[in-house]
């Protein structure tokens, strides 16, 4: 998806988004709007992929006319303020808690999005047109038909970013949109895997995510509160489990089911989020690495880039 330091300018938006774009504010075509990675890829007829992993450089809003489609969106980082015609959309994923959303459009609509200077956006969007469903005969499926029938125009559906879906999404985000056949096929396979998992949830067959009972939900909530407090920093899994009243195996299983990742993977993401905020406040890279639990700035930089799509140096330089 390009170099992480790449500047995306006004005149390049249509190519990057796959559609003509209107910018509400007037300005020269060479004015940079984003820094990072922004791409659009047509994988096959009726199936396209849009990936964003960038920092917004100004306050601005864009408008795009979109045709009927089912959009499957995974928000990983950043505050999503947008609307389709008059239907407002507000998404703000918390650290370690990506949000999945499906938006059904059964007639053309105007998509408007508000950007904010300094905000880091990380998300992917898969667009499936009615022609794509028809070409595979999928529109005859009762569960899918309920998602794309005319009465569903502007309907919003939540879906659960399970661990397997998140792994596929990370693979999609990290692969460059190469033009060679093998890269294209590899990306298409990942995207179709995401489509399968999400539509399986939305169409209701079967419900894969584990349904947690109230006491299991309370266990996960107690764990999250403990981790958020910072008191458990440096603790072993057994110590954390004892503090919330569970065995280590039970805690790991229930936490993985609810959060889509292990306890320590969640902890790593939380510490990297704190390091990101510290860098914005002027903290040095070595200090931020230490706060995040890394003795090596090189290892910290690798983990930071994997999480946010930009290096600590880039965040520090921008702020």
Question: Key terms for this structure?
Answer:
319 residues, alpha+beta, Jelly Rolls, Arc Repressor Mutant, subunit A, 2 domains, 7-stranded antiparallel β-sheet, 5-stranded antiparallel β-sheet, 42% helix
Explain what the structure shows:
It is a single chain. This protein has two domains: 7-203, Jelly Rolls (Sandwich); 214-318, Homeodomain-like (Arc Repressor Mutant, subunit A), CATH 1.10.10.60. Helices cover 42% and strands 26% of the residues. It has twelve helices and twelve strands. The chain has helices at residues 13-17, 130-135, 142-148, 163-174, 181-203, 214-229, 237-244, 248-259, 263-280, 285-291, 297-308, 312-318, and strands spanning 7-9, 21-23, 32-44, 47-56, 60-66, 69-77, 80-84, 87-91, 99-105, 109-115, 120-128, 155-159. It is globular.
């Amino acid at each position: 998806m390009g170099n992480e330091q790449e500047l995306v300018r006004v005149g390049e938006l249509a190519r990057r988004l796959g559609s003509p774009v209107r910018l509400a504010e007037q300005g020269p075509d060479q004015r940079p709007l984003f820094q990072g990675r922004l791409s659009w890829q047509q994988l096959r007829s009726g199936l396209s992929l849009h990936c964003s992993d960038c920092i917004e450089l100004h306050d601005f809003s864009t408008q795009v006319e979109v045709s009927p489609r089912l959009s499957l969106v995974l928000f990983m980082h950043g505050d999503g303020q947008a609307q389709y015609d008059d239907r407002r959309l507000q998404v703000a994923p918390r650290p370690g808690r990506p949000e999945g959303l499906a938006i059904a459009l059964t007639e053309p609509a105007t998509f408007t999005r508000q950007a904010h200077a300094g905000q880091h956006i990380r998300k992917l969007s898969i667009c499936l047109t009615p022609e794509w469903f028809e070409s595979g005969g999928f529109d005859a499926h009762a569960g899918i038909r309920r998602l794309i029938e005319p009465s569903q125009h502007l309907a919003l559906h939540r879906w659960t970013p399970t661990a397997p879906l998140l792994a596929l999404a990370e693979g999609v985000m990290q692969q460059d949109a190469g033009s060679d056949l093998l890269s294209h096929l590899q990306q298409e396979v990942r995207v179709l895997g995401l489509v399968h998992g999400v539509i399986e949830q939305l169409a209701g067959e079967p419900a894969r995510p584990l349904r947690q009972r109230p006491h299991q939900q309370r266990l996960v909530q107690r764990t999250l509160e403990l981790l958020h407090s910072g008191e458990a920093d440096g603790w072993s899994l057994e110590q954390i489990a004892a503090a919330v009243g569970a065995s280590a195996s039970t805690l790991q299983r229930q936490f993985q089911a609810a959060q889509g990742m292990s306890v320590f993977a969640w902890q790593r993401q939380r510490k990297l989020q704190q390091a990101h905020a510290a860098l914005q406040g002027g903290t040095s890279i070595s200090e931020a690495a230490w706060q995040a639990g890394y003795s090596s700035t090189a290892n910290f930089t690798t983990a930071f880039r994997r999480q946010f799509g930009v290096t600590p140096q880039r965040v520090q330089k921008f702020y």
